[in-house]
Structure formats: structure tokens, C-alpha cells
Design goal:
Strand content: 5-15%
CATH superfamily: Metal-dependent hydrolases
Helix content: 40-55%
Number of domains: 1
């Protein structure tokens, strides 16, 4: 039975999850079909009954293309995944509605629907073109993860050999363009040097859509303390993930070492350890949840699918968390970030000539200047 504190927190603020890979999972497993999600789909982590059971009120659907895909092909595939989300919403209008602002998220929740937001996972999907970014923003994309597991032409990944010292000139221009478009800079998957470089430039809050903390598990996909210490000053949010190799060093060693015998524990308690560590470092106003459902074969024990969020909240209640703290973790913090990103974009658009960044980029390309 769900704890009364958990139920109260979810009634005030349902879950706003930062990262779910249903679009790419549906491509590989179901040829992008949106049928049957109202009845339950056993080979996915995500369907409508389990979203409802999990108390999900808003979901960032990840638009993911493998990082070995060429830029032109990645742009096309990203459009196809945007189409998938639009068809998903159209097929289940009583369940989903598209959203691109915190006001629209709150309106959807008030109507009993699940707000659907778009997040691009991997900057190569922008085709090294600020124009493509602006088109995606017009279509409702609200964050861009600068890299995936490999470097892009302008940003370094946390799981690749460094090449750009974090960001090159084009990468710095992209941060400015993202700010101007009201699109969140997502630093999951990036190297610490990229994280710092983006924080140096961004005038809007950043997010980590699905990461852990290195202070608990020293994994390259997790965020080091020196970056975490900068997050309150930026106003951003770290959204904690449920991926076993990120939440448990013992599980990661087992996973990478042949996977013999029973896997070590990597469950709700380990995820809660990351949540609490992050709260202690960055403060209660700068944390959220980003499960990474349907983006990884197996999630943490007890959090195997999108129905699991209340079980994690119950664990935090047992550790002394209050309703107000859970409300912030559930999604209030992320909604504040959306508000600030939109306000920042409005200020930039009012203060800076519309074409300033675009003209700089165009001039650089016309002159043949390299981006490194």
C-alpha cells in the first residue's frame, strides 16, 4: 500500500519525468505503432495503465538516434520520432496532450491528462545547424542533450575521448541559441569539461535529464561534485536516473565483468541514496527524476517499469522526507526551470537583435573558418 505522504505529494504534484525512450523502443519493437498502449504492452516499460499507476503527470519523451548515425540521417530520424509522439497524443487524446511550457503542463494535469514534452537526446540530431535547432524548437522540442555516448562535432561526451575541450566555438553558439529559443540545455551524457563550459555560458537554467551522482557511484555518466556545486547558482535541476550501472558500482562491475552469478543489489535503496546525496549537495530545489525507461534493458529492482515511482517515494518517506520535499522532487522544481528558461528567452529576444547569433554563425561558415 502506498504511504499516505506519497499519495498526498502525488496529488499535489504528479511526477514530471525527464527522460523516457518509448519512441525509439517503439521503433525497434513495434515499427513505431501507437496501438495497444491503453491495454498494456509487456515488452515495454511504458504503457498507459502503468503511467497512471506510477502517478505520472508529465513526460519528456526522448527523441533518440544512435550516435553512429550520420547527421543528415539523424535529423530525419528525429522528425520521425516527433511524428511518433504526435501520433501517440492524437491516438489517445483522453490521456495525452502536447505541452511546451509549465503552464501547459499544469493545465494538462488539471484536466487529468499526461503532458507530453519533447527532448532531443544527442546534439548530432541538430545537423550542426542552428536553423534546424530553431525548427525543432518551433515543433515543441524543450531540451537538447548535447551529446550521447560519442562526441558531436561541437561538444565532448563523457564516454568518448575529449576533442573540443568541452565545447568548441559552434558549441558555444549552440548554447546561446538554445537559451534564445527557450530550449533547455541538457548536460546528461556530457563530459565534466562540457558541463562546466555550458554552465559558464548559459543564461538559463540547465538540466541533467537522466544522471546519477559520482559521489555515490563513480561512473562517467554521473555528475561530479564540482559541477553539482554550481547548479544552485545556475538554477538548474539534476534529474536522478534508475539505470542499475549508474546507481551501483558493484552492479556495474558485475555487468562489465561477464555477468556471472546473481547480480549485486541495484534497487530502490540505491536510487534513494543518489537522490539523498544530490539533495544534500545541491539542495532540495535542484533535484528531480528521470528514469530512462525503455532506454535500458533492465531498470533498478522495484522500479522495473513506469509504475514504480510511488515505491521510490515511499522509500524516501521512510527516510524522513516530507510532502513539501517530495512535491519539489516530483516535478515542481522542473516546472520552475521551464518557467525561467522561457523568461530568459524572452529577455534575450528583447535585448539582442534577432539575427545576431545566426549572423555570426553564417559569417563564420562563409569565411570557411573552422569550428575548433
Amino acid at each position: 500500500m502506498t504511504d499516505a505522504v506519497t499519495e498526498q505529494a502525488l496529488s499535489i504534484q504528479p511526477i514530471v519525468d525527464g527522460h523516457n525512450d518509448l519512441p525509439i523502443a517503439s521503433k525497434y519493437k513495434r515499427d513505431y505503432s501507437v496501438e495497444g498502449l491503453d491495454a498494456g504492452v509487456p515488452d515495454l516499460h511504458t504503457d498507459i495503465p502503468r503511467l497512471r499507476a506510477g502517478g505520472v503527470g508529465a513526460q519528456f519523451w526522448s527523441l533518440f538516434v544512435p550516435s553512429n548515425t550520420g547527421e543528415a540521417e539523424a535529423v530525419q530520424a528525429t522528425f520521425e520520432q516527433i511524428d511518433f509522439v504526435h501520433r501517440l497524443v492524437a491516438r489517445y487524446p483522453d490521456t495525452f496532450t502536447l505541452a511546451r511550457s509549465s503552464a501547459q503542463v499544469r493545465s494538462a494535469i488539471a484536466d487529468g491528462k499526461i503532458a507530453s514534452l519533447l527532448g532531443i537526446e544527442g546534439g548530432y540530431s541538430l545537423g550542426s545547424s542552428p536553423a534546424i535547432l530553431r525548427i525543432f524548437a518551433e515543433l515543441g522540442v524543450k531540451y537538447v542533450t548535447l551529446t550521447h555516448n560519442s562526441n558531436t562535432a561541437w561538444a565532448d561526451s563523457g564516454t568518448d575521448s575529449p576533442h573540443h575541450h568541452g565545447l568548441n566555438e559552434l558549441g558555444r553558439d549552440f548554447i546561446r541559441e538554445l537559451n534564445a529559443a527557450g530550449v533547455l540545455v541538457d548536460l546528461s551524457h556530457t563530459s565534466p569539461e562540457t558541463m562546466h563550459a555550458a554552465l559558464d555560458i548559459s543564461t538559463a537554467p540547465v538540466i541533467f535529464s537522466h544522471s546519477g551522482v559520482r559521489g555515490v557511484t563513480d561512473h562517467p555518466r554521473n555528475v561530479p561534485d564540482d559541477v553539482l556545486h554550481r547548479l544552485p547558482g545556475n538554477g538548474g535541476v539534476l534529474m536522478l536516473t534508475f539505470v542499475p550501472t549508474f546507481v551501483s558500482a558493484e552492479y556495474a562491475r558485475w555487468f562489465d565483468g561477464g555477468r556471472e552469478g546473481k547480480p549485486p543489489p541495484a534497487g530502490i535503496a540505491e536510487v534513494a541514496d543518489h537522490v539523498e546525496y544530490a539533495r544534500n549537495v545541491v539542495g532540495i530545489d535542484h533535484i528531480g527524476l528521470g528514469g530512462d525507461y525503455d532506454g535500458y534493458p533492465v531498470l533498478a529492482d522495484g522500479l522495473e517499469d513506469v509504475s514504480g515511482y510511488p515505491r521510490l517515494l515511499d522509500e524516501l518517506v521512510r527516510r524522513g522526507w516530507t510532502v513539501d520535499e517530495l512535491v519539489k522532487l516530483n516535478g515542481a522544481n522542473l516546472l520552475r526551470v521551464l518557467d525561467k528558461a522561457d523568461a530568459s528567452a524572452e529577455l534575450l529576444q528583447a535585448a539582442v537583435p534577432e539575427l545576431s547569433v545566426r549572423q555570426r554563425d553564417g559569417a563564420r561558415r562563409m569565411s570557411g573558418k573552422t569550428v575548433d
